[in-house]
Design goal:
about 100 residues; alpha+beta; two-stranded antiparallel ribbon; globular
């Protein structure tokens, strides 16, 4: 399994997502992680970037809403504590388990 973290520098939330992914990988050492800096609107459109951070499991964004816009923007996630800039480790684990 490969997890890809898509982000752009203008949004600080990708660092929180990166920490959560790092924590998850400690439980699942078979996972590889790559980071993809999206830095132009054209690239965002080309890769279907739905905001920073976007987290792909084997190329699929399990958190994506079908009508979410594509572009360079910070993304919001619904977590048990309310809206946040990144999914929780538990949410990542749940998506990982349902993806496998």
């Amino acid at each position: 399994m490969e997890i890809t973290l898509q982000y752009f520098e203008g949004c600080p939330n990708w660092k929180v997502a990166d920490q959560h992914i790092t924590e998850l990988v400690q439980e699942f050492p078979q996972i590889t992680v790559s980071r993809h800096l999206v830095d132009t609107v054209e690239e965002a459109e080309r890769v279907g970037f739905r905001g920073s951070p976007s987290i792909l499991f084997d190329g699929v964004d399990p958190f994506a809403q079908p009508d979410a816009p594509v572009g360079l923007a910070c993304r919001r996630y619904i977590t048990p504590a309310g809206f946040a800039g990144a999914p929780t480790v538990d949410q990542l684990r749940e998506k990982l388990n349902s993806h496998e």
